[in-house]
Design goal:
156 residues; alpha/beta; Rossmann fold; five-stranded parallel sheet; 6 helices
């Protein structure tokens, strides 16, 4: 299948690398993918970190935030969401099976990164439960892109 015209960025907390790897494998050649810079110096310097993100970004970015139980504690995920919002990227959360909210109707905003929660409430970002089905993921991305087109990011 031909690669989509989107640059898909996977944002995750290091304990959720297993799901990042599964998502990357599921996506295969459908999207160009990137993930967090891992250089120690970059991980502790917001300016340098976002400069590195900018090198891999495009005007058609989609940020998928893998949300486990501890993701909200990760400053780098917060930086990535902030970067995506300031770049007017599509932002979508995927609730992982390791998250207490997985497959539940309601979410606990205390265990979701704050910038993601704010933009969920504003209608800009989207949030779905993890899937192993590529067709479901493609549908989630389409819904998220539509939400992005109809709203503006909340940059708080």
């Amino acid at each position: 299948m031909e690669q989509k015209d989107f640059n898909l960025f996977i944002s995750y907390y290091h304990v959720d690398r297993y799901f990042r790897d599964r998502l990357s494998k599921m996506i295969g050649n459908h999207f160009k993918t990137n993930s967090s810079p891992h250089n120690y110096e970059l991980c502790h310097n917001f300016r340098k970190y976002t400069e590195e993100l900018r090198k891999n970004s495009s005007e058609h970015d989609i940020f998928i935030v893998l949300v486990g139980n501890e993701t909200y504690k990760c400053k780098n995920v917060d930086w990535e969401i902030d970067f995506g919002l300031h770049e007017d990227a599509c932002v979508m959360g995927l609730c992982l099976p390791t998250n207490d909210d997985y497959l539940k109707k309601d979410i606990n905003p205390k265990i979701i990164p704050e910038k993601l929660v704010n933009n969920l409430y504003a209608g800009y970002a989207s949030y779905f439960d993890w899937t192993d089905n590529y067709d479901d993921l493609e549908n989630y991305i389409e819904i998220s892109l539509n939400n992005k087109c109809e709203r503006h990011p909340l940059l708080v």
